[in-house]
Amino acid sequence: MKTKCLALAVALMSVCPVLSWGQVADPLEDVLILYDFNALKCDWANTPPAFCAPCVWATDLSLDRLSQGLLDGGPDGTKFRSFDDWDSSYDYSFARTDFSAVSGTLSYDVYVRADAIANISGVSFDWQRLGNSSVDAIQATIFWEGPAGSIQYCSSGPIALDGTESWNSRELDFPIDVTPLPTGIDTSGKQFHIEFYAWGNNGGALLLDNVALKGMCAPIPEPGGAILIAAAGMALLLRRRVRA
Known about the structure:
Elements: H1 2-20, E1 31-35, E2 51-52, E3 56-58, E4 62-64, E5 67-71, E6 80-84, E7 105-112, E8 116-129, E9 137-145, E10 151-155, E11 159-160, E12 168-173, E13 191-199, E14 206-219, H2 223-243
Antiparallel strand pairs: 1-2, 1-14, 3-7, 4-7, 5-6, 6-14, 7-13, 8-12, 8-14, 9-10, 9-11, 9-13
């Protein structure tokens, strides 16, 4: 009987973080941050996230040396951005002393709430090349502060962008066989810096839409709440036994 009660309590505690914020299955259930540009009014407008999961918040999408435009008719028929003036050839450094972006990148910072945990899996985006002068490679890199205060990173590595004049979707993972990303309680209160770097040909325009950080998150259960859940599970089992 004790074993059954404990098992039920553990099961209830495992789903409690999801239920406590009212999350339900939807297209954003594995999205932590989303930039979709639909609410923007002009080229030079700031680009805040269109969606943040309850456990995180993020900065505006930031440009370093790049130029941008705002156009209509993206993959879902709505607004998208054009990013131009990338590097013609690969010239990128992973070495960092802080979370400042390097030249020729598109980036944003994500902060996990102190009362929450998150697991980050990768990034996704819709993309289109305008022609043969457009960049034909991209990589995504995530940076965070390690236990000793040094800046650590994990990168998708170079990914080819093939074809022109049609929209494509791409998801880039952060490999687990390099520096492991913090997970679970190690993400609580932590800052992450996500950076996109594209290059090739003449460094020409790359069209982007629905730029997302993928993953899951949940609040940290309070000890008192966990005890109540366990007690509720035991009471439910006892009530069923009496009725039987």
